[in-house]
Amino acid sequence: MPKDGSGIALDGQGRPLWLVLELTYRCPLKCVWCNNPLDFQRYTSQELSTEEWKDVLRQARTLGSLQLGFSGGEPMLRDDLEELVGYADSLGFYTNLITSGIGLTETRLRALKEAGLKQIQLSLQSADRRLTNELTGARAHDIKLDVAARIKAHGFPMVLNVPVVRQNIDQVERILAMAESIGVDYLEFANIQYYNWALLNRDELLPSRAQIEHAEAVVQAARERLGQSMTIYFVIPDYYEGRPKACMNGWGTIHLTIAPDGAALPCQEVRVIEGLEFPTVREKSLAWIWNDSPLFRKFRGDEWMKEPCRSCSEKEKDFGGCRCQAFLLTGDAANADPACSRSPHHHVITQAIDASHSPERPKRPLIRRLRDAVSTEL
Amino acid sequence: MNQSASIEAARRPELKPMFLLRWEDTQAAYVLLYPEGVVKLNPTAAEILRRCDGQRTVGELTEELRALFSETPERVEQGVQKFLEVSYAKGWIRDRA
Predict the structure, then answer these.
(1) Which end of chain A is more exposed for a tag (fewer CB within 10 A), N or C?
(2) Contacts of B65 (CB under 8 A, 6+ apart)
(3) The pLDDT of residue A9
């Protein structure tokens, strides 16, 4: 997933440079911060076919897509992954696989290399077995370490992505040491973003300011020590930043996600916003969706902005932040992202921080990403 | 070689393996692709980077660019030096072992 701060140059404004295919929402893990929809199981029977995905790839290349992420759910659960990677490579995409590592066997790793896969992003949740397994709800730790070593053995450039939460943030130093010994090229500490499953569990997952400051200091020291041998990203948690993230580099500017059922989305979370219609590639051409659909035009540019964004000197830098977060926390997607200290709703963020660290807070069990774990329909 | 040159003429720069340089029709430009990133190159930058193949030396590629551009030899060399410095610093290229 392209993050705030990822290296996409803005020259391509107006073209969907970054294409993410969420091949499936199915996943062997049950992460407590999963960004898939709460009713993910509803989409299993609607997944696009191999030929439908290929058609998406052709159309997207014509529109100028260059970077391609195969994501999910767990993309390894699609047995046509190698075929899709090969096809995408032949069209000229730079192909990235975003995986938990589960199912990435030696045979499939070799087949992916032969198909032209360029890069693998592997997730790792902690430096120790017990915590990884607890956070993912699966015996995943040892498999991930084994997969990490084999990814490097096959000569793939590798991003190690570590979702950062209260439970693992104090392990940053140990995770850095692990990444160094594996030989990863990019290490990404991604403070999780609070949508869907993560938002349900926010009180239990949000780190404290002191934890974040400590982690940042450790990362900075490591950067100085390691120089160019490993690039380390630390994705700032917007709850503590006071400034909103430049979400997706702006709505409908460079990013296009295709969900498992073919819905074309400006970002992976956007189905949390109620009242929008999500066109699918089964009904409409990608060119129409990208250029003309009401969905993609809804928050493109700055015409839609209200105060304080409209007259803000930083509106071209952060685009008013995240529309999904504005909707989830203020009820209106056109409001300023409440992570912004200038938002009249900023108190919902500060109150959330206080509530999640209050000694009197009722301790709740983590809600795992499981089928029907929560009811989304009456 | 000019006294001010900071990158020695005998070095043989090459693109690091995770970088992919190719022509992109939809941008009418060369692009550099790498994990989670794209850079669109201007024509001069592309001509320099295309020659970072681990075969040519900095001296040789500078000569080739002098033939390609109408600028004075000094200005071409300055441009090449500056761009190579940036490319090393960004980690796009390394010296052929």
Answers:
(1) C
(2) B47, B48, B51, B76, B79, B80
(3) 43
pLDDT in tens, B6-27: 889 999 999 998 899 999 998 8
Residue B32: count of CB within 10 angstroms of its CB = 22
SS3 (DSSP) at A142: helix
Interface test with A, best of B19, B23, B38 (most A CBs within 10 A): B38
* Beta strands B93-95 and B37-40, pairing class: unpaired
Cβ–Cβ under 8 Å, residues A41 and A370: no
Size of interface A-B (CB pairs under 8 A): 63
Contact A94 B26 (CB under 8 A): no
- CA-based nearest distance A67→chain B, Å: 7
Give CATH superfamily name and number for B14-90.
Coenzyme PQQ synthesis protein D (PqqD) (1.10.10.1150)
The confidence score (pLDDT) of residue B5 equals 60
Which residue in B has a C-alpha nearest to residue A9's C-alpha?
B39
Domain parsing of chain B, residue ranges: 14-90
- Give the minimum alpha-carbon distance from A224 to chain B in angstroms, rounded to a whole number: 14
What's residue A190's pLDDT? 95
Please check whether residue B1 touches A, CB under 8 A: no
Q: Is residue B38 less than 8 Å (CB to CB) from chain A?
A: yes
- At A4 the pLDDT is 40
The answer to whether B28 contacts chain A (CB < 8 Å) is no
pLDDT value at residue A227: 83
- Please state whether beta strands B29-34 and B37-40 pair in parallel, antiparallel, or not at all (unpaired): antiparallel
Segments in chain A below pLDDT 50:
1-12
Does ipTM come in above 0.85? no
CB A120 within 8 A of CB A158: yes
